Amino acid sequence: MNVRQVGRAFFADPATAAGTIIVITFLVLALFGPIIAPYSPTKQHSNAIRQPPSLNHLFGTDRLGRDLFSRVVYGARDILALAGGGTALAVVLGTLIGVSTTYLGGWIEELVFRLFDGILALPALLLALLLLGAVGPSRTGVLLVIVVVYTPIVARVVRSVVLSLKPRGFIEAARMRNERLSYILWRELLPLVAPTLAVEAALRFSYAIFLVASLGFLGIGVQPPNPDWGLMVLEARNEAVLAPWSLYVPATAIALLVIGVNLMAEGVRRALNT
């Protein structure tokens, strides 16, 4: 299947197209936030505390008079950068470890995947608490959490594919030709792993978005006064009566982005399986 056919299959479903539009919208907000946002995300307006949505403040203001639209726009940059960067690192590391150790087999494979089983036995949030307790709440700490949580999952998915490919004739033929190990791993195996890996990467990205937001809500992720969406929900949890928009705006942003990425992931899976 060529690129044009994959693209046509990807956009054949209206839900996938809608999800793509949502994600692109948030990407534009993240890239051009300083141009789009009318105010500083941390500036407090003492004369505009808990203002409902209006022409001056499209999404209203919070308990400190900060413009919620500006905070959502700037928050998009953090959540996409952390979730995207962490997912990319996890996919790269998981692929390298999964392909190489599974092909080589033996005690190295056994040791690596028993270690990964131990990591996966811990709930993601509990593992995040342990890691952030050691390194402290920060952007770097959140990035580390995503990499540690999702690298074992990606590696196990890659391992399952490589195990099904190892007995194939083309691998044996490559060995008979005395091809280098690097050639077999990256020229023979990796292209066949890539379709499954693309779907897995999209799914991990959506989970990473939710994980970043969850850490912010627990107060152990990106720290104030940064406009983190999860942190915004945390700060507005007691404002549901006085200023409900300050709670609903960041919560809706999180939900829309996660839904958009999931719809895209489904489109990727369908397009590659067509």
TrEMBL record:
This is ABC transporter permease. One of its GO terms (cellular component) is plasma membrane. Its main location: membrane. It is a multi-pass membrane protein. GO terms for biological process: transmembrane transport. The chain crosses the membrane at residues 12-37, 79-99, 111-135, 141-158, 205-222, 242-265. It comes from Chloroflexus aggregans. Residues 76-265 form the ABC transmembrane type-1 domain. InterPro entries: BP-dependent_transpt_permease, MetI-like, MetI-like_sf, OppC_N. Belongs to the binding-protein-dependent transport system permease family. PANTHER family: OLIGOPEPTIDE TRANSPORT SYSTEM PERMEASE PROTEIN APPC, PEPTIDE ABC TRANSPORTER PERMEASE PROTEIN. It is found in: Cell membrane. Keywords: Cell membrane, Membrane, Transmembrane, Transmembrane helix, Transport. Gene3D superfamilies: MetI-like.
